[in-house]
Design a protein that fits this description.
The protein is mainly alpha-helical and about 150 residues long. The protein is built from four helices and no strands.
Length: about 150
């Protein structure tokens, strides 16, 4: 395939997909931890354990996977010049929404860390579905390329 990546293209594409899967796995799990955290008494052993789990999940898995997905994704865009396609603009819009929910998750994690949660478990159950809906839209745009 022509482009600056040359024969590295399939490897970069594979690393991009691995990064995206890792990012999404964390994005699916973190709000589920928030649901459990709502039931924990502030200061309890469970609450403190969940704080550690949430911090590590965000800092060790979700954030690095997102950064890697962006890096490999930008390389793929430059290689294929996909930015000219309509489907890519739709994907980019949904990806920006994914970043907004990622930022919201990070903010809510800080609230839990400070024992200052402002939402109930039902709210986090709904927020748990947002990354799934965004991911479905992104995958359809990338694979089907409807426009």
């Amino acid at each position: 395939m022509a482009g600056f990546l040359g024969e590295a293209y399939p490897w970069i594409k594979a690393l991009h997909i691995i990064s995206v899967i890792s990012w999404m796995a964390g994005m699916f799990y973190l709000p589920r931890l928030f649901v459990y955290h709502c039931a924990a008494e502030p200061g309890s052993q469970l609450s403190e354990t969940l704080k550690v789990m949430e911090r590590r999940l965000l800092r060790v898995i979700i954030n690095p996977a997102m950064i890697a997905a962006w890096g490999f994704g930008i390389a793929l865009i430059l290689h294929t010049e996909a930015w000219h396609a309509g489907w890519f603009h739709g994907k980019l819009a949904l990806l920006l929404c994914m970043h907004l929910i990622h930022a919201a998750f990070a903010r809510w994690r800080r609230h839990f860390a400070n024992d200052a949660n402002r939402h109930d478990a039902g709210f986090y159950r709904i927020m748990n579905e947002v990354p799934t809906v965004l991911m479905i839209g992104i995958v359809i745009l990338v694979i089907v390329r409807p426009f």
